[in-house]
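Quick one:
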Amino acid sequence: MLYLILAVCCNLAIGMIFKYTGQQRLDAVALLTVNYAVAALVAGVLLLREGSGVLTGAVLDAPLLVLGVVTGALFIGGFFVYALATQMAGLSLAIGVMRVSVVVPFLASWVIWSEVPSVAQSLGLVIAGAAFFMIARRHQDAPTAPTEQPGSAGGVFGILVILFLAGGLVDVMMKTFDEAFADHHSRAVFLLLVFGIALFIGLVFVVSKGVRTGVWPDRATWVWGIILGLINYGSAAFLLRAIEELSGPFVFPANSIALVIGGALLGIFVWGEHLSRLNWLGLACAAIALVLLNL
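Output:
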């Protein structure tokens, strides 16, 4: 149970860091680039320490390389949208949308891999879809928290739609790896490839901006990027350890529901965010859907 709690805390901390660094106007792309440099370094060091032939899965064929490039681009792009969503829509709604994006890989599994959902999972898909629209719905006259960037209702809805798709597509890419490549390639090496691609994409943008404008990441960006990278890696590591000790059908919904509730509480009590009754109903429906999807 301790590892599950730590995984939840790490994921909530990521959202909090995005919220805080957004307020401080730190360069989000530079922040994410440092984050992926740290994550890739940690992953590489741990792989080398494991030894025992783990790097034998490092041979990359063209289809796997393409998958790694696409997944890496989705990693850094999705994280950038997540950071932006915490500023425009608030931490509570951004986390809620990230959780219900699980609908996308469920639908992909059904359509592409013919994994027909159960009755409970089908009901969960419907409820999760409704939950997304209730969470993303923001009235034009809704009060804006001091920590949120003002924006139109349409703009907020748009960024949450992109976040929903990006978060779901990352899971689809990981599912694709499991279905098509996992039997002959190391998952750990593939994740290292993905981190490396995300790092490379970030570096291209950071270096090009630096050369063009003379503006390079400052000390605060480096510090918060390193912290973010360690927490980001920790969130995945702790979740994997939790799955080893507890059953997956318990860990996944418990993790998601804790994040939805924790994100809402942090958004309200720490950042002064305001949720409508419809938003609250959407978060409650998201929690119910997440349970049903894991039955």
